[in-house]
Amino acid sequence: MKRQLQKYEEVERSLITSYRKKIWNRFLEAINEFEMIKPGDKIAVCISGGKDSMILAKCFQELKAHGNIDFEVVFLSMDPGYAEEHAEKVKANAELLNIPVTVFRTHVLEHVDKIEKHPCFICAKMRRGHLYRKAKELGCNKIALGHHFDDVVETILVGMFYGAQYQTMMPKVLSTYHEGMEVIRPLYYVREQDIISWGRKNELEFITCACKVTRKDADNDMNSKRAKVKALVKELKEDYKNIDVNIFRSAQGVSLDTVISYKKEGVTHHFMDDYYTRKRNIETHYDED
């Protein structure tokens, strides 16, 4: 008699069958292209309780079980001060999906609740700091976050529209303040809609935003910059379906010869810095001809 698969086994099977091309293969592509995992790494996969971090955890379990890279992985979840029902939902989903998660509690939301200007930015920074410290305490040298393709696209546009700068969310980043630590984003090429589809197919329910600061204005969420950008991209895709791909690729096709200025390692370089040197070189070239 054929054994009835447990829920987590069904989820794992869907990852390498129905979603092999759209999620699993793209997860591997990012890891390989950007050399995110090296032999001997110990990686803390950070679980917020949302769909993105949960699919990231399942991908890492699959890679650890069947991949050819010798590395260690721990699943780390920070409770920043969630309401009890949200904290319990994270734990219940981790148990359902057979993810052995280490949970630790902080008071981030309590502090952020008192901040009026840029609470989301400060919250993200505080959470990242706590995750770095806990991961390092567990002997990890990398933390893996669940940012995906759509996050990258939206980051580019938010920077342009609201920050007057061109920048992108990098696939991996060396920590400036935590020695020996690195952030990796293995879902870099995975589309958000495919993650949503995966969750629905497996009849999974995740927490969305459990932040009480955000929920204060939940009915007016479109006021957030990222929500507006997300809506704009969706609207533009109705006329040109590859608009998000082109935005993403624009970060790979930057021509420094055609920008007014750019920063590298904190130093601003202006096109006028060597304009006349290049002009003389061109004139010399023509004289020689």
Please explain how this structure is put together.
The structure is a single chain. With 289 residues, this protein is of the alpha/beta class. It has 12 helices and 8 strands. The chain has a 6-stranded mixed sheet, sandwiched between helices. The protein has a two-stranded antiparallel sheet with strand order 7-8. The protein is globular, with a radius of gyration of 22 Å. The model is unreliable at 217-222 (pLDDT under 50).
Note the topology.
Blueprint: H1 7-16, H2 20-33, E1 42-46, H3 51-66, E2 72-79, H4 84-96, E3 101-105, H5 108-112, H6 119-137, E4 142-144, H7 149-163, E5 172-174, E6 182-184, H8 192-201, H9 212-215, H10 225-239, H11 243-250, E7 261-264, E8 267-270, H12 275-288
Parallel strand pairs: 1-2, 1-4, 2-3, 4-6
Antiparallel strand pairs: 5-6, 7-8
